[in-house]
Fold these 2 entries.
Entry 1:
Amino acid sequence: MKNIDSIGHVTGRSLYLDDLPTIQGTLFGVVFDSPKAHGKIKSADYSKAEDFPGVVRILTSKDIPGENQIGGIIPDEPLFADGEVHFMGQPIAFILADTETIAYKAKKLIEMEIEELPVITDPREARAKDQLIFPPRTFQVGDPESVFDSCDYVIEGEADNEGQEHLYIETQGAYSVPMENGHVRISSSTQGPTAVQRTAARVLGVPMHKVEVDVIRLGGGFGGKEDQATPWGVMTALAAQLTKRPVKLAMHRMDDMRMTGKRHPYRSDFKIGLSKDLKILAYEATFHQNAGAAADLSPAVMERTLFHATNSYFIPNVKATAYSCRTNLPPNTAFRGFGGPQGMFVIESAIAKAAEEIGVKPREIQKANLLNDGDEMPYGQIMDQCLAKNSWDSLESSFDIKKLEAEVEAFNSENSDFKKGIAIQPICFGISFTNTMMNNARALVHVYSDGSVGVSTGAVEMGQGVNTKMVQVAADAFSIDPSRVKLETTNTTRVANTSPSAASATSDLNGKALQIACNKILDRLKEVAVKKLGVDASTIELKDEKVISAGTESDLDWKSLIQEAFVSRVSLTENGHYSTPIIHFDKSKEKGHPFAYHVYGAAILTVTIDCIRGRYDFDSVKLVHDFGKSMNLPVDHGQIEGGLVQGIGWMTMEELLYDKEGKLMSNALSTYKIPDIYSVPKEIAIKHLETEGHEAAIQKSKAVGEPPLMYGLGAYFAIQNAVKAFNPDYQLKFHAPFTPEKVLMGLYEKVGEVVPD
Ligand code: MTE
Ligand code: HPA
Ligand code: MOS
């Protein structure tokens, strides 16, 4: 089935927040944010700005009737800074004016004196100064320390990664309308409508039932709107409550880039021990997560780093410790992979370094250590239906790795100005929110008396195709044409207490809830048919809009059956609730079974570098992916391609830089480059790992949103492989992204030379 949004998107008819018709009397909001990364607010003078014609009001922390608090996991973040500022871009005030232009002009008239305090941007420095957001956590199995002594090879090193800007095409925004009796209706571009509702209620000092949140769709979220869409929804709601006028905020790109958090940079140490036959016997990793100035989702992101610290490998002795370090950057947040990629980059770096020192190919170590059924992960889950080896084997048989390597070698021996590099990247990604409690969802189904169907779920469409999949689920459950099914907006009054659309689990959770709701209606419809036709209940089925009784088509079709149910006063509305079975996790022991299942795959990446200029092009990415039994291949292929390219971008050209004062230097599209059509791999070949799929996945179609991003990790190692082919003196370094500048320096690095990183 085609993506239901495809025509709307390409013709520009799909509606986003900024397309909502403007209601007369609407005020436009602009955020006044901190110009300093750390300091005390000594004085603030809003009078000139307030007096500017067209300015209606300026809100600060003093105007908040409820709590000045937006922290979702740890209450450590004010909506508006009060007394102190902790990052450049931190909201201090909200200017409301008749037009946005006026609000921007007024912004320049605000006078503020800030006494500067020391700025920390580096997580290692933060740890040294005891600036932790919460206590460190350790996942351990076996005892690596006692095993290193008996290893044939022990290799240590560091592996660092920088952040990543989400760069959703639609920037953050919200539009709030005051309703009667203190009720406010927020249209928000959020992945988490309930988070916006809950936080707005807290800040406004009203019960949650006074706040309604509605989401049409997002022009991309990528994790950046899992909870960082909340402040804007709350600010506009507060402003609507106080002014009794509709209030809209649609952020400008540079404001968005400056004020919002990103993927977490990490600074990590590793130590890996191997036997002669390349078995990894012991692994230690210490992660320093750059959390930014407040917790945001960092505790959950850090947890997933620990869960994925060993990627697709079985290692009997592991100790992984992570520190969440407080710095003066905007609070970093969810980003596709949610800490997993950061953990996986470190083990892949350890393997690359070990391979170099031992004198083997990284793939030999990778292959020798792939997970098997029955293996215990450091967090206690015993692997079953494990497809790590199957993916690898399928990759070898489908794409002939040795032949590709031979081609790279042949090219390199014939060319001196260009070199090719190759890397293999296996992935293993756990599906479920790591916080067990969040793994539930609901759906509300109305069958209208004409046989058309309205479906509401907690799922937010952000381009990943979840609405298309929900239409499929409902249409398949009733065996009706998909054109009869309409996906409603995501609204907190129809589906309440939702988890955000995240963790790649949106289709699984909401789809299963939807199936439950549909099946309840279906059971009632069958009863109606049995009564009407006077046949045996066990032989009734609905197929292709027909009622089939004992294998033969009856006179009843979908529409007449619905009509019959309606006149018989049978309810045509149902609610479904689903919560993932089996999963659990005990934080006091750091052991459990947190994931419903894992998604596997493996990719071969080849790159050509220009040894004069340092630039590079990816020739091809060939991969085998575990879709389970895909319910929508075109949608799933879109996720593979998008995720892969986003991962390659993070590892290569996307360079997020803050200066020592905590100022974002790559603060616009002119300085922050994401992959465009010219920089994507020339060829992306996707092979399906044929399996039956997993029961916990919707229609056995496994989650596909995040896992493919991690194929992109291989981009770093492919480039490194090519640099080494040109310059044998190059010393392996692990600090992503591998920008063209870094490639150039690596190409001409000499033995013993210290190259700035
Ligand atoms: N694909 C598009 N086009 N746009 C997005 O914002 N977000 C990703 C992924 N794919 C995203 C996307 C992220 S971070 C997640 S968690 C999943 O989609 C969320 O949707 P799912 O749970 O339905 O896979
Ligand atoms: N993944 C993505 N988002 C989340 C998670 C998770 O495991 N937990 C909380 N938010
Ligand atoms: Mo995705 S990072 O779980 O929104």
Entry 2:
Amino acid sequence: MASREQFSSKTGFVMAAAGSAIGLGNIWGFPTQTASNGGAAFVLVYFVLAFCLAYPALMAELIIGRHARANVMTALRGISTGKFTYRLGTAVGCYGVITASLILSFYAIVAGWMLAFLLESVCQILGWSDVSKWLVSFSFERNIIFMALFMMLTISIIAKGVTGGIEKWSTRLMPLLIVILVGLIIYVLIQDGASEGLRVYLLPEFSQINPRLIIDAMGQAFFSLSLGVGTMLIYGSYLSEEESLPALGAAVTLVDAGIAFIAGLLIIPAIYVAKQYGAEIFTDAGQLIAGPDLIFQVLPVLFKSMGSVGMVVGLAFFVLMSIASLTSSISMLEVPVSLAAEETAASRVQATWAIGAIIFCISTLILLNFDALFGFVIDLTTVYSQPILGVLLCIFVGWIWHRDNLLAEIKKGHPEIQGGFFWKVWPTYVRFFCPVLIMTAFIQSVV
Ligand code: TRP
């Protein structure tokens, strides 16, 4: 058997994992959830949950992955201890792979819109107004063309493998993303109206902390850290044994939460600057506009009103969104592709194209029945499946896997860990607290 690919360095892994984590969830989801959930109170709860709930779950995935050095299904089977848990591993692995594929099928549609708006900014600069208009109007043709384009980009990176595809492009694109993000923040913060937005974003209203807010923050943390479906597990499986997992996991959590926080410094003030320019920023019910209208209507009003500078700012904004989407989507596609490439006779390239084609078909189906399926698939995967899978993975680590093997795995790259805080707390934590907390929040939100 050919030797399995590995990230070439610690930085390579952090870039790839942070690239997966940092996506539309950070730049769009987090700021708008914050705005509609009482500003800084949500930020606070989010940070607590990211470190106390999402980080331990992330560790579970990274540890299983590096131990098994395989895709999610093979990995769970590998740590099973009997016939029943072996079958459970197969089932949970399947569920994860299907969920990852379905998440990609709606993510590719949204990311396609980002590409369309990116191209629109270019057409504006060139003065091609007819094309511009078509690019920003919602139509089946536009949606399918740009979804296909985005899928092709994702496929072409994944077909190239771990170091030549995932690592290479994450290390190129992530620094660029940060530069654009910081540039945009500086620009927006010096505009009129920005300080009102900052106030909404940063001043907590503690009276707003309620069960709904906590559940939203948990869902957001799970989505943002790409948890449950085996994405982080497969990235962990490409990590060298010399690296310390708890430290790397903490770095990824910190970077992800940090970028979400600074994205809020861009989006919320930008909304209030747009208000100065006459954009409608509240819904009829008095809530801040948070959904697609925010990105595709409110912010474009802002860009348009800023004249020729606005064209460049708009372009930079949609380049930022497209990059963030791409480094995330590759991590979703890697989940089914690694399974197919490792468990069937297909080569990586064949597996990538075949699975890419299947996901393209699912996305097309969603586009054909947009009103019925789009929201449904998002809820099915992110609201229901991700927390359930999160609990199942904690059960695998906390209850099924032998504790000695678990310890042996964490000790690699971190020999002194047995006496430390992490090993004292974490195993019990993933055994009891994580599943109970996740389930409680989940049941609350469903009932
Ligand atoms: N975390 C990414 C974001 O914030 C999305 C993402 C990538 C994801 N891989 C995932 C979400 C796996 C759930 C599962 O946009």
